[in-house]
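Exercise 7. Given the components listed, write out the predicted structure of the assembled complex. Treat all entries as one system.
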Amino acid sequence: MVLQDCPHDGMETVFFFEYLRYLNQKYNANIKKVAVVYIDNEYGVHAAQMVKEKVKDFPEFSLVADVKYPVNATNVDIEVQRIKSARPDAIFHASYIGDMTMFVKKYKEFNVVPKVVLSYCGGYQDPQFVVNLGKDADYFSGTNATTSALFAKMPILSRINEMYKAKSGVDIDGPTLEDFASALVIAEAINIAGTTAPEKVLEVLKNHTFDAPYFVSEKIKFGPDGQNVYSASVMTQIFNGIYEAVWPEQYQTHEPVPQFPDWNKR
Amino acid sequence: MSMLAQLVVTGALIGSVYSLVAVGLTLVWGLMDILNFAHGDFMMISMYTVFWLYALLKWDPLVSLPIAALVAAMIGLLTYKLVIKRVLNAPGLMALLATFGLSLFIRNFAQFLWSPNYRFVGESILSGNKLMIFDVIVGLPQLVAALGSIGMTFAVALFIKKTKFGKAIQATAQSREIAELMGVDTEKVYMFTFALSGICVGVAGTLLLGIFPVYPESGAMYGLLAFVIVALGGFGNIWGAFYAGIMIGLAETIGGFYLGTQFKYAIAFLIYLLVLQFRPKGLFGW
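Answer.
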């Protein structure tokens, strides 16, 4: 049995649509048309399948472009031209760091100005995204288990980051925090079980709700399929190179901006 | 209409760079009947050279171009001396396996040295600049990459056709024994051709770094497309590689846009398979 503490593509997709709905309601963003852009592998194809499935539950949105690109693509020119011709308000990306960086460069070159770009766990979450693109990384969004902007709001997370930073020299990021949570959960399960016998530890993992004050969800509970039923994510958006938490509101460190400015006005 | 014009321009620009990668490959293939599987990896090494000069010394890729070309030439030269020369008179499969092994070695060694991370040149003289010709957008890094590739292809073609050494290369390609009887130092010709092949791919890699990341596998798809282009254009035919490169670039962009972006390389490979059914020596081969 595989246990997963981070949200899967289906959960992230629902989170994306709910965020778009929030932007429409609160900021009158008028987001209607969505495009999904994804790499042609299990990660990308599954994310796209989730978009096609979940969009049915959000009738105010329509899927206007489905752009799949090959693994190891030498360029993304025609992909960006297809996106541009569909004129989406929001773009969902399932891309790794190299592809994602190429896409942003091409968005700028072909003057693609959507309202929102949301990324599944992948290239956007890699801190290299900001290093590669500088100010062009601003206004992109995606889910994240944490961000340095949240440390001031979450004292336990802040303490964990201090310990992590003392050893690594950098702030803890989302995927690392998820790894940390996995180690902590298995340790706690062994403590509760009082043994390392796999069946007993698995029994605890299946039935116990674990405290996780370092996650915004604050707890971890594995469902029958092994998936953590609590989404340990916030929506982040980059401002001046910093991943700010923009939604849910109780964790907000910066207000979201539901419209990309023109590329030449940055 | 403006979309079609945009696709044609984009395809031609992409195809020009493919051409230069393929020209380096076709030189070796045409001269020695050797399929260099490590060709794309030479490109990757030149890209890393440019990247590190940028990251450590803040050199612009265009400034680093001669050094990257020189590094790629040296790698070509060493490949000939240490690998190819030893299998030159062995059955053809040996050279093929040797270059395949070399490719694996270079990729894994690059991963060991520099990790699998994707690296970009963030700022350069050209980055972020573009031209608007009516409704057609042309990125300056891509335009310079294409013009540089076309210029380099012309220079190589001119060198092969007009210079004495170029004629020695042509003579060796036709018959090594007769060229030697005529006084051609074929050893020198082989060495130089491998170095020239490295220069071509080194220049292409440098020009690409403004628009494409470098990572240990970054030369793989370019190397694969170069094989298709060389076979399509005719083995050893520089102009054949040039035209075939443009053709593949156009097929990729126009076909990919209208039939599905996920098929863009499949379309290129399908054209290659179809052409080989009717012209096994390529479109411009003889």
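Discussion: Residues 91 and 117 of chain A are 5 Å apart (CA to CA). Helices of chain A lie at 9-27, 42-54, 77-86, 97-109, 128-133, 155-168, 174-193, 198-207.
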